UniProtKB/TrEMBL annotation:
GO terms for biological process: proteolysis. It comes from the Archaea. It comes from Halocatena marina. CDD domains: S2P-M50_PDZ_Arch. The lineage of its organism: Archaea, Methanobacteriati, Methanobacteriota, Stenosarchaea group, Halobacteria. GO terms for molecular function: peptidase activity. This is Site-2 protease family protein. The keyword Phosphoprotein does not apply. Its main location: membrane. One of its GO terms (cellular component) is endomembrane system.
Amino acid sequence: MVDTLWLALGGLVIYMIIVATAQKRGLLPPQVRAQGPITTLHTQYGKVLLDRLASPKRFWRAWGNFGVGISLVMMVGVFLMVILAGVQAVSNPQPTAVSEPQNVLVIPGVNDFLPLAVAPEIVFGLLLGLVVHEGGHGLFCRVADIDIDSMGLALLAIIPIGAFVEPKEESRIKADRGSQTRMFAAGVTNNFAISVLGFMLLFGPVIGSIGVAPGAPVGDIVPGSPAANADIDRGDRITAINNESIANASELDQRLTEVQDKQVEVTVDDGENERNVTVTRELFLTHSTPSVVEGVNTSGPPPHIQEIGGEPVSTRAELHSRLEANPKTTVTTDKGSFELIAGAYVGQMEEGGPLANQVDAADAEVVITRIGGERIVTSNDLTRALSDTSPGDTVNVTAFVNGTPQQYNIALTNGPGEHGYLGINVQRGTGGIVADDFGVFVYPSQQFLTALGGNGPIGIEEFISKSVSVLFLPLAGAVGISQYNFAGFIDPITNFYTVSGPLGFFGDGVFLLANILFWTGWININLGFFNCVPAYPLDGGHILRTSTEALVSRLPISNGRIVTRTITTVIGLSMFTGLMLMVFGPQLFA
């Protein structure tokens, strides 16, 4: 992605040279003006339309007052968020994909989270957002009888990055503070209104017409795994194992765990054709704790497990059976051997929790192998065993602490669920490793559909909750919400979904409509938040000035202009510093 960024910068330099040469020779029309990489297109068209739209002035003033209230609340929230994020970037700098500088740019293909596949939908949402934003400014100029000099579009080279309305400065200054504030808040209000409308359509009839297709959706394939060797690919759906239908990812995992055959017949649907392939299974490590697999080379292709306690194994069913009989055993791989204690590996113990109060060493390596006489091999076994308990129950726990078996009688407490709680977090798999015999990563198709309202009608609170969650879906894989980022319903992801319901007659066009609404809502709500930053030249900076002037004018002081300038300057500089730290701090201070 760094290469793509440099290509974009190189193209920008070439564009600046060409435009500067054309401007010097007088080849640009008067409606086109250029300054550095920014090109603006000016027009006088639209003024008559704005005059007509502005005629119900009482209505627009009421809408403007509502928008001012929304904007002020958002400005306070954005101010606190930026300050806290800036402090976090200095005190605990953690460089992530989200904080990479190129990901600040809303440019598909350069921003890691805005793929080229949905560039048309993103550009449409951006253009619509810019038009309604600046259109709101222009409309409220005419509501307040502020004259407009020109309107137009701002481009970064050939990419739209903004629209503008240029009010005549002397006319704007004559308007009262309330009219100016409503005018500055109008763009933000319109962006939020477009987001609400888009999300209402998305969460309602559009997502209501999309369902999850049967089968296990393949999000990715482990290179060199049995599935890869059988030509199963990203975008496929696994619909049957040994001719037994698979409804979802859970059933796939269950069938593969139960079946002990080294070879399984897998039915695969790629969206156009269904085919049967034979998968020859072999065990390999997908995740491992370094202290557990010490001495094994985990770089490059994942280690393949060959033997457990000297006995050959090929499937998870065989692995579970061998480990159930031998809590402590030797695991032999093609890259070395290691000793494994098969049980629920404790990743973290809650200070003062039931288990922590029994274990002497705070940094001990703890593996739980029995609960109340029941053998615990995996983290799932521990979850099932605790599900049958209640807070207050006393259970006998067998655990290996730094390799030595210990017995504890532990009184369970209240936890996140209704069952008993040990006060621990355990790692997936067994004993600090996760093994697989197939090699697919499942795409969370149902999780994303549910996040977009795919579980029926929703109320106001749930609508707000889903609107907030949508902001993070393009970053879902980076912020830990999911293993994958959600870019929309694009190929080959569309193979994981079906179209029916109220808009079923549109066919695959429903996916395009969903993408347009998703990205239009996402872009507009982010435009609204960004413009609420209380700093010049953003709308938030202008609203801050007029609001501060109105507040200071009521105070019994004679130098109100100086006080206003001081307040707005301090807040503006704080915002600029916070934004710079958010973008560049993790790289500078890490």
